[in-house]
Amino acid sequence: MSANPATPLLDTVDTPADLRKLPQAQLRQLADELRAEMIAAVGQTGGHLGSGLGVVELTVAAHYVFNTPEDQLIWDVGHQAYPHKILTGRRTRIRTLRQPEGLSGFTRRSESPYDPFGAAHSSTSISAALGFAIANKLTGRPGKSIAVIGDGAMSAGMAYEAMNNAGLAGNRLIVILNDNDMSIAPPVGGLSAYLAQLVSSRPFLELRDLARRLTRRLPRPLATAARKTDEFARGMAMGGTLFEELGFYYVGPIDGHNLDQLIPVLENVRDAAEGPCLIHVVTQKGKGYGPAEAAADKYHGVQKFNVVTGEQVKSAPGAPSYTTVFADALAAEATRDPTICAITAAMPSGTGLDRFAKAHPDRMFDVGIAEQHGVTFAAGLAAQGMRPFCAIYSTFLQRAYDQVVHDVAIQNLPVRFAIDRAGLVGADGATHAGSFDVTYLASLPNMVVMAAADEAELVHMTHTAAMHDTGPIAFRYPRGNGTGVPLPTVPERLAIGKGRVLREGSKVAILSLGTRLAEALIAADQLDARGLPTTVADLRFVKPLDADLIRRLILSHDVVVTIEEGAIGGLGAHVLTMASDEGLTDAGLKIRTLRLPDVFQEHDAPDKQYDTAGLTAPHIVDTVLAALRHNSAGVHEARA
Fold first, then answer.
1. Cα 624 to Cα 135: distance, rounded to the nearest angstrom
2. What would the mean pLDDT of 449-462 be, rounded to a whole number?
3. Calculated CA dihedral for residues 551, 553, 557, 562, nearest 10 degrees
4. In the sheet that 500-503 helps form, which strands lie side by side, from edge to edge?
5. Which of 127, 282, 380, 627 has the fewest beta carbons closer than 10 A?
């Protein structure tokens, strides 16, 4: 197949089958065009840029060598999958990335057969690829499974748990370690590239297999010595002894931007009779785009930007983000209290703890992508008298739930959980939404759970958590900028389990948890205008509930509505349980619960997501009016 010189090669490639028709000599041009296309697309949509730029050549080589989708190519996390999407039939939609009804920013099974496994959380690819490989083996399918995992994701124990079982897959499993930080190996040179190609070649592997058969006939001590000699000789020359000990045949490091090195090695490994193989590929995050290469974060995540200059479109100046407010409040607490320390799981800037670290570098700990370890590490700190804050996104704290239960809650240790990205998160979609933390935390004995209605409340809750030493405590807050309310100069220690009433009415009571409070107040104005005086309470706590306040409002109003930015099982469920236990609904009171719907919501602008979820002022008003219309005569008779 040859393209017209005036026609970009990328225009001739719709699927990997088209790519495999190209002569290898043209792949360099195709990779350059693919990189340019990705830059142009993300410039219009925003998204994750640096990771994808770093794997352009690897993406081309993998689809060129392996028979995808029969061979399953599984990307860890999915940040780097944009070039993959362009080459797998989605180029015409690539400018809908992370847009309403557009392509997901991650791999997604429903999007394409070339996305065999959906991903958005880290360190899952090897486990998933092993599952595919074993399934292929058991059913006699010919496919191989290739997991592409970044060096950062290798900080999670799950990756090593998978590798420990990888021998079951034999040569059907290939792991490509994308080292984009030069954190494992020395710089790649010609000698290491030559060695990688040599040790992955068929003659070398056949010779090695012959040597293995011969050593089986030797006495055990000699056979063991021969095996170790082979492993450690290659380990000294090339690195990778750890992976060999886990049962992988290690090849690398090789230059992940040199197609002439990548393709022969991938072909050799594809055709090898060896067991599971690990190919160590060194890449440069942001490769090929000057502004990304020069940026400290390599343009990991970007807003829309000018492709020529790299300048990102800046939002209009607004209130500080909730993340910044928390970080500054915690730094101030740590200045007052030397026992306060902070823990993040590979998200220092995302959680704001990079700001904390500038003030208190010795008391900030980044444990890597290891939320389980981070929580138990915090439990150990707390048991020894420190006051640890685990700042973890809601969706990532899910990964450490067992540790929250067993290592923190059962032992009643005062670990403080600062839960960022609570509620819906916009373009990152369902995989990053903080939908479930209230449900999974408020069900635990000993746990205190708060939700900030605005950034001033977040300052108070940070202080309250710092002062709470009788057990675990959590407070949640959303992504994005706050409302611009003045921040307190002296934070208040909130009374545990006590809410506040912002306005009093007599007909309708709205019980709010979190930042839906603003919508509750708007709804109250509209209900008042309809002759329905409305009380609005910010409960602050879902565990423990303010039973006295809730009881009073239930007994003095015709309709009670709860509203929260979480899934079923949260505030509404706890209020209903309390009302049922105390017999408060026997007189026919109407209680309605507004919460996130029982679906994984698609990515969209947060405001639209909340409107779709029915958590805005008009929905509150409609809920109240519907409740009053339904059997309203019976309610008044019962109350009379």
1. 52
2. 98
3. -100
4. 500-503, 534-538, 508-513, 559-564, 590-594
5. 380
Which residue is catalytic, options 35, 90, 98, 285? 285
Catalytic-labelled residue, pool 371, 457, 519, 565: 371
pLDDT in tens, 483-510: 899 999 999 999 999 999 999 999 999 9
Select the more confidently predicted residue: 47 or 412. Answer: 412
The average pLDDT across 522-528 equals: 97
Q: Look at residues 451, 444, 384 and name the one whose alpha carbon lies nearest to residue 418.
A: 451
Count CA within 13 A, CB hemisphere, residue 441. Answer: 35
Query: pLDDT category, 308, cuts 50, 70, 90?
Result: confident
- Of 234, 298, 399, 476, the catalytic one is 399
pLDDT tens column, 95-121: 998 888 888 888 899 999 999 999 878
Question: Do 545 and 439 reside in the same domain of the chain?
Answer: no
pLDDT at 195: 47
330 with 364, same domain: the answer is yes
d(CA 238, CA 243): 12
Q: Residue 148 is encoded by which pair of tokens?
A: 């592409």
Question: Could you give the CA distance from residue 488 to residue 434 in angstroms, rounded to a whole number?
Answer: 27
Structural domain tally of the chain? Answer: 3
pLDDT at 206: 59
Is 285 among the catalytic positions? yes
**pLDDT tens digit sequence for 399-408:** 999 999 999 9
Band (77; pLDDT cuts 50, 70, 90): confident
Q: Among the listed ranges 175-179, 189-193, 326-330, which one has the minimum average pLDDT value?
A: 189-193
For 320, counting Cβ atoms within 10 Å of its Cβ (0-12 exposed, 13-18 middle, 19+ buried), the class is middle
Distance between CA atoms of 434 and 478, rounded to whole angstroms? 8
Residue given tokens 């490994």 in the structure block: 269
* CA distance linking residue 595 with residue 603, whole number of Å: 18
| 243 in any annotated domain | yes
Alpha-carbon span 228 to 235, nearest angstrom: 10
**Does the annotation count 399 as an active-site position?**
yes
Distances (CA, A) of 117 to 75, 110, 279, 328, 467: 8, 9, 21, 39, 44
Helix, strand, coil % (nearest 5) of the chain? 45, 15, 40
Domain identity same for 298 and 358 = no
Angle at 177 (CA atoms; ends 174, 181), nearest 5 degrees: 175
Report, as an integer, the average pLDDT of 46-67.
93
Residue 2 inside a domain? The answer is no
Which residues are CB-neighbours of 222 under 8 A, at least 6 positions away? Answer: 215
Distance CA 552, CA 496 (A): 18
Domain that holds residue 146: 9-302
CA distance 516 to 618: 12
> Is 358 among the catalytic positions?
no
- Verify that 448 and 508 share a domain, yes or no: no
CB-based burial label for 421 (10 Å; 0-12, 13-18, 19+): buried
Report the candidate in 495, 420, 432, 508 with the shortest Cα–Cα distance to residue 463: 495
Distance CA 16, CA 56 (A): 14
Token pair of 145, please?
């499974």
| Exposed / middle / buried, residue 255 (Cβ in 10 Å: 0-12, 13-18, 19+) | buried
